[in-house]
Every structure is written in C-alpha cells, then in structure tokens.
Amino acid sequence: MAENDERAFASRTKWDVTVAGGGTAGFVAAIAAARAGAHTLLVERYQTLGGMMTGGLVIGIHTMRIHQGISTVNPYQETTYQSQQVVRGIAQEVVDRLIEMGGAFSRKGESSSIVRFDPELLKYLISEMLDEAGVEVWLDSLMTDVVVEDGMVKAILVNNKSGRHLVEADVFIDATGDADLAVAAGAPWELGRPQDGRTMPASMVFTMGGVDLPKLFAFVRENPEGLESGSIDGIEQRYCEDKPILVRYSTKALKNVDPADLPRAPGARNPITHFQVSTSIRGGQIVRTETNHIMDSVYGLDLANASDLSEGIQRARRHVMQAVNFYRKYIPGYENAYLLQTADQLGVRETRRIVGDYVMTAEDVLNATKFPDKIARGGRAMNIHSEDGWSAAAEGFSGKQWLEIKDGKAYDVPYRALLPKDVEGLLVAGRCISVDHMALGSLRGEPLCMATGQAAGVAAALSSQLKVTPRQLDISLIQRKLIEQNADLGGIPDAPPAGA
Ligand SMILES: Cc1cc2nc3c(=O)[nH]c(=O)nc-3n(C[C@H](O)[C@H](O)[C@H](O)COP(=O)(O)OP(=O)(O)OC[C@H]3O[C@@H](n4cnc5c(N)ncnc54)[C@H](O)[C@@H]3O)c2cc1C
Known about the structure:
Blueprint: E1 11-20, H1 24-35, E2 40-43, E3 60-62, H2 89-100, E4 104-105, E5 114-117, H3 119-133, E6 136-138, E7 142-149, E8 152-160, E9 163-174, H4 180-184, E10 189-191, E11 206-209, H5 213-222, H6 232-240, E12 246-250, E13 274-282, E14 285-293, H7 306-330, E15 338-342, E16 352-354, H8 362-366, E17 374-378, E18 382-385, E19 400-403, E20 411-414, E21 426-428, H9 437-443, H10 446-466, H11 475-484
Parallel strand pairs: 1-2, 1-9, 2-6, 9-21
Antiparallel strand pairs: 3-5, 4-5, 7-8, 8-9, 10-16, 11-14, 11-15, 12-13, 13-14, 17-20, 18-19
Helix pairs in contact: 1-3, 1-10, 5-6, 10-11
The structure holds flavin-adenine dinucleotide (FAD).
Residues 20-26, 43-46, 51-53, 56, 58, 60-62, 142-143, 175-178, 180, 203, 205, 294, 347-349, 430-431, 444-446, 449 line the site of flavin-adenine dinucleotide.
C-alpha cells in the first residue's frame, strides 16, 4: 500500500480514535470514546448502524442479567427481572431511551432477561446518540486495509463512493465482528471449534405478517405435547396482557407433515425439528399479527470469506422461502400469513476470534472466574448452536446447548481479551474478542458486545489522551472511567493511597 502517495487518496484525516464497524459493539465504542473526550470517527460498510441488532433483525437483547434456566425454570424471559443485572452503562441507556420512544419492552433503569425492541427505532436512536456525543460517522464506507509500522497500527484504508481514504488515528478499535482490521494488521486468530474449525451456523432472521396467533394457541392447547418451553396458559396470559411472547414447538407434534416439506439446510445433518415464533414491538405495543423467526440455515462455510458469505446469503434466502412455505402449509394460524421482511444482513454467529493477551475459556465462564483487570461482567449461559445441525449433544434443546454459569454467579471479562497479541495501537470489541469457541457462546450476546465496546472506547480515548499504547494503560484508570460512564463492574479495588 502506497501510504505516502498522496495522489492515491481522496482524503487523509487524523483522529484520536477510529472505530471500524458500526454494529452492536462499534456504535457503543464510538459513543464511549467520544464521551471520554476523544475526537472519534466511526466507519461502517453499510447504510445502517447497529449491525446484528438492526440490519440482522436480532431484536432480543439477551441477557443483561445472570441467566436462569431458559427452558424450564424461566420460560418467560421477556417479562422476567428476578436475577441479578450485571450489564448496565450505555447498554442500559439504549434500553431506557428505546422505552421512552415506545421501542422496547422493559422497565426504565433495569432490563428484563430478554429485552425485545424495535430495530427501526434503534437505527434512529443510534444516529442520535452518536450525533450527541460528537462522533463523525462515515456510512457506506468499507475498511479494506491497514498501515502497520513496527507492529503499531498507524492508519486504515477506507473505500467509499468518493474514493480511497487514508484514516490515521492514535488508537483503532476493531468492531467488525470478523476481526478484519486486526487480521489485516497481523494479529493471530482462531476459527470455529478446535477439532475442525467448524463454526456455529448462521441464520437469516425474517418476519411474517398476517398471523392468526389465537388460532396457533388453540392448536397448542389441544396438542400441548409439542410445546418445548412454558405453558400455553402462561403464553396466552402474556399475550392478553399485551406482553411479548415466544412459542417454541416441536415439528414432530404437527399433523400430517410430509417429511420432504421440512426445511433442511445444506450441510445440516437433519431437517428442522422445531419452530419458534416471537412477537414484535412497534409503536409502544406488541404487534399481534407479526412474528419474528430465527432458523439455523448456513452450515460449514467461513463467513468472513467473501465468496462463502455470498453463497451463505443465497442459501439462507432459499431456506427462508422453504420455511415460509412450511409455515403456511402446516402451522395453524399461518395459512394466510406472508413473508414480511428478511434481514438486510445475514445473521452470522461466529467467524474469526483474535488471540489476545488472554484467551477467555469456557471454564472461565462456567466457573465465574474473577480478573483484576475486569472491564465488564457477564451472566449469559454459553449458547452453542450445533455446528452440524442437531448434534446428539444439542438434541435436547432444538440444536442448541445452554450451559449456565455455576452457582448463579457472574464472570469477569479481562481487559487483556481486547488486546490482540503482536499488535499495538489496537483494541478489539464485540464477538471477535479473544475467547474460545465455547466461551463465545456467552460473550457473543448483544449485552457483552455492547459492554466490551464501551470498554474499548474508554480505553482508546484514555490511551490517546495519555499518549501511551492501550497495552501500557493503567487498568484502574479504565475501570474508574467505565464506572463514571455507569458501567457495572460489581465494584473495583480501591485505588492505592497516594505515595503507596
Ligand atoms: C441469528 C442470530 C441470533 C442471535 N440471537 C441473539 C439474541 O437473541 N440475543 C442476543 O443478545 N444476541 C443474539 N445474537 C448475538 C448477537 O446479536 C451478535 O453476536 C452481536 O450483535 C455481534 O455484535 P458485533 O458488534 O460483534 O457484530 P455486528 O453487530 O455484526 O457488527 C459488526 C459491524 O461491522 C461492520 N463491518 C464489518 N466489516 C467491516 C469493514 N471491513 N469495514 C466497515 N464496517 C465493517 C458490519 O457491517 C457491522 O455493522 C444472535 C446472533 C445471531 C447471528
């Protein structure tokens, strides 16, 4: 890359902090950095900010609390506030402001176990919050390359309609989900499960309109054996109270199904074994005729690879049509329903994870390990979607495992998991931080992606101001600034007395 060839660039700019990727972690990172005083640029390849939360239609924030029994003890997470809340900060502010706009189902100041929200209002809110914080935003702008000198990231290259731009900064944050920046800078990374690199599957989220839910409830009442979560009384009660609901039902309990009609994703061992519907919130109320659907449909592809991604998106669209046809043919209440919307972005659960100064493991999550350099806390169970489609291990819960933390405790996320090995001037946030395949099942949830985004933003701003690399920063400064920004670290050790 001809860094010093001025003619090659449409612009050359210099920032305190630049964030690549304006998704779940990235928009929060940019807000946190700007609020901490940094002159901040956010670069996003699409026209929508919010990543999976908006473009991906993943409209249930799960969970800011300590996870408690998703299928048995607590089937109604959308209306549950019992367990301890461990993620706050900008994530809670987003929930509060969405509630004010009629765009989320929760309580101000605290979050239900799953917060259902309106992705259209979130798109608007993110823009407002970035604007208020003074972040410069470049949409439709793809980060394509990086300039590294002696292991230090100096600049990134961004392509958009105006040409190729050289963007310099004191500190960069990689919030691309795929670790595009870190990998281009030479950071080590891992992919998928240890034995063969296969990742959790992707899903294209879709919504259906024209749904007759009372008809579905009547069918479930007559055939309760297929219900995988909760009771029909509990679901109907919530529906009547205008609260969000989720119905998860086994396809085996449906009537007269021709097995050839069951949606089957290429590369999956089996066709689907259950269907799941949840309601949407729009304009401050639950929409009674619209349902949101997530089905695993893309297996065995590397979705950080452009040609695999294109293939995956097309597979997912075919799978959505199979699913819609299946719903209309076999699921009571869906006879006259129609495909309302598919997500603009394929729902990618897993691609590259950087190898950082510390790699968080499944044991760290399950044992609720504490770290002195904590920058966030998590309580979500490890949710592993079967890499092959309904493996024996995941059979019990429709292709997914939910492995909860022992004794109902929270784990800490160490700052070192945001620092890619062998590279300076760079932090990573969101699902590409330094965790193992199983631990990702917990940390990839939207709450932790927002929390690691906030931590990366604060650390980047401090690093720029104090003229030290992120690795050289005093952890207590980051922790104190995060607490000032209302993050929940569950208490931190007191600062040592002056002169100690
Ligand atoms: C199908 C599915 C269901 C899920 N269900 C839930 C759930 O119920 N609850 C929950 O809490 N979590 C859920 N998750 C997990 C969660 O939504 C994601 O893991 C999380 O949102 C990822 O955040 P992120 O910031 O790392 O990535 P993203 O939100 O994907 O953001 C990455 C951003 O970077 C941009 N980008 C990428 N490359 C570049 C580049 N080179 N240049 C510029 N921009 C770039 C992308 O366009 C995107 O905006 C689900 C995930 C999936 C896929």
